[in-house]
Amino acid sequence: MLQDLFFIALLIAASAFFSAAEISLAASRRLRLRQLADDGDPRADRVLRLQEQPGDYFTVVQIGQNAVAILGGIVGEAALSPTFSAFFENWLSPTTAQNLGFFGSFLLVTSLFILFADLVPKRLGMADPEPIAVRLMRPMALCMALLKPLVWFYSRGADALFRLMGLTSLRDERVTSDDVLAMMEAGARAGVLAAREQQVITNVFELDTRTVSSAMSQRERVAFFRRDDADAVIRLRIAAEPFSTYPVCEGDIDHVVGYVDAKDLFQRVLNNQPISLADDSLVRKVLIVPDRLTLSEVLEQFQQAHEDFAVIVNEYSLVVGVVTLNDVMSTVMGDLVSPFDEEQIVRRDQDSWLIDGITPIEDVCHALSLDELPHDSEYETLAGFLMVMLRRVPRRTDSVLWGGYKFEVLDVDSYRIDQVMVSRVVPTSAPLGDA
């Protein structure tokens, strides 16, 4: 009986080996394995190749696990069933004792295999998969060589079944933006990645979905010069509205002919030279981009034109705003912007926000943790949302209830919504607008 118990222990160890080998290969992350391979471990490189074609590897695992399970059942029943039967015969009939002895031996052997040959090794393999997969690589390679005929037979049979069902056995190694974001979120929860760093990475991926209008300075906030502005007018405008770049227009803002850099203007002031925008050497060629471009496309335009300033126009060739490289970078960095920049979203307390009417709707949804707002294809700003929901130009004290929030207009200046108070209320199942 001791020999049988020792043999059962060996079978459990063999089954645990195959279980750990299986789960560690499946759970190993390619980035970690690549790091191990770059550090000079050839076994990690072989594990990487096996992940690309794991069919033979898992065939050996299944052959080993099934063979060990069958042997364990046979040996366990022969070794333990008589002992259990003899124990139960002290109180029960021989037939009943024999049945209970068989059930007891089956339950004990099965429990031992489940605990020590399945649960424990698989949990270890999930907890630290890459080192375990690397350590078990050579023993598994030996098993694959010894069982090569059986591996060939079963692998070809499995491949035939996959082709018959129109499936592929190749592992998809493509890494999507959703995969990266999920990894960043897991890293933030584990404390490996700071929450601010996670937010910056998330903002980078949003550059492909956010339009340039979400980061630009709106038309009514653009400070510009006319081509025929006098020296005194230019100096007063610079003092009143200090910016790094100013569009230069013929007549009005919709006829932009270029832009002037504030550094060039300051240089002339310091040299006591007159400022005249009729001088073509002072006015630079401006980059014009459509308002439907994404922020990622705008960055590409900046790179190609070697510029960091652009004028945004709509489909009617009317200027809707301007954008700078700093505006795009501020979108990426979130609240890591200059303290001199005016905040469009100010959180008053736990359940209320004061938001500028021209705030991009993407920023509003992000601040309020909303997935989306209704009819979001019809507007780009919070003011546009209120107009669409109310079906008219909002007035002071007008409000809209949506998604558990109340959007109340606080200030309107010449039909322009300046400030909106957003308060958290009891969630509602449907939108409600009231004046």
TrEMBL record:
CBS domain segment(s): 282-342
Segments forming domain CNNM transmembrane: 1-197
Keywords (A to Z) from UniProt: CBS domain, Cell inner membrane, Cell membrane, Membrane, Repeat, Transmembrane, Transmembrane helix, Transport
Gene Ontology CC: one annotated term: plasma membrane
Role of this protein: Involved in cadaverine and putrescine tolerance in stationary phase. May facilitate the efflux of both cadaverine and putrescine from the cytoplasm, reducing potentially toxic levels under certain stress conditions.
Membrane-spanning parts: 100-120, 132-154
Pfam families, sorted: CBS (PF00571), CNNM (PF01595), CorC_HlyC (PF03471)
Subcellular location: Cell inner membrane
Keyword Repeat: yes
Membrane topology according to the record: Multi-pass membrane protein
Cross-referenced Gene3D superfamilies: 3.30.465.10, CBS-domain
Family named by the database record: Belongs to the UPF0053 family. PaeA subfamily.
Coiled coil residues, start to end: none
Record-linked CDD domains: CBS_pair_CorC_HlyC_assoc
Xref: SUPFAM superfamilies: CBS-domain pair (SSF54631), FAD-binding/transporter-associated domain-like (SSF56176)
Entry's Gene Ontology molecular function annotations: flavin adenine dinucleotide binding
Lineage: Bacteria, Pseudomonadati, Pseudomonadota, Betaproteobacteria, Burkholderiales
Protein name listed in UniProt: Polyamine export protein
